[in-house]
Amino acid sequence: MTQLSEEEVTQQLTSLPEWKRKDSKWIERRFRFKEYLDGIDFVNKIAAIAEKENHHPFINIQYKMVIVSLTSWSENGLSELDFKLARQMEDLFDSESL
């Protein structure tokens, strides 16, 4: 795993329009839910994905909103693994129509 270049990060973000650059080392997405427990259920599911990938996001729960931030500490920035995990979260969110 290696740190992605600025060009690679920009390219990856084009396929993840809801994810935003937080700064040079982070990407972030806000997931909104109809009910509080829907967000909690989502957090539990993304935690299972993160464990499987051995790549753990920062997760902030604010009532009906879940904020997820990703970076690769070992690379001191963003790597392909951050975008892989982001895509898995998008797929989960889309499949559950939460």
Order of helices and strands: HEEHEEH
Helical content band: 40-55%
- Write down the overall mean pLDDT: 95
Give the CA-CA distance, first to last residue.
32 Å
What is the spatial order of strands in the main beta sheet?
Answer: 1-2-4-3
Top-tier CATH class: Alpha Beta
If you compute it from the alpha carbons, what radius of gyration comes out, rounded to the nearest whole angstrom?
A: 13 Å
Q: How many discrete domains? A: 1
Main sheet record: 4 strands, antiparallel
Would you identify the regions where 5 or more consecutive residues have pLDDT less than 50? none
Helical run tally: 3
Report strand %.
15-25%
CATH topology: Gyrase A, domain 2
Secondary structural class: alpha+beta
- Give the total of beta strands: 4
Shape: globular
Secondary-structure arrangement, i.e. CATH architecture: 2-Layer Sandwich
CATH 4th-level superfamily = Transcriptional coactivator/pterin dehydratase
| Oligomerization status of the protein chains | single chain
General description of the model:
The chain has about 100 residues and is of the alpha+beta class. The protein has a single domain (about 5-95), classed as 2-Layer Sandwich (Gyrase A, domain 2), CATH 3.30.1360.20. It is about 45% helix and about 20% strand. The protein has three helices and four strands. The chain has helices spanning about 5-15, 35-55, 80-95; strands at about 20-25, 25-30, 60, 65-70. A four-stranded antiparallel β-sheet has the order 1-2-4-3, covered by helices on one side. Helix 2 runs antiparallel to helix 3 (about 80-95). About 20% of the residues are buried.
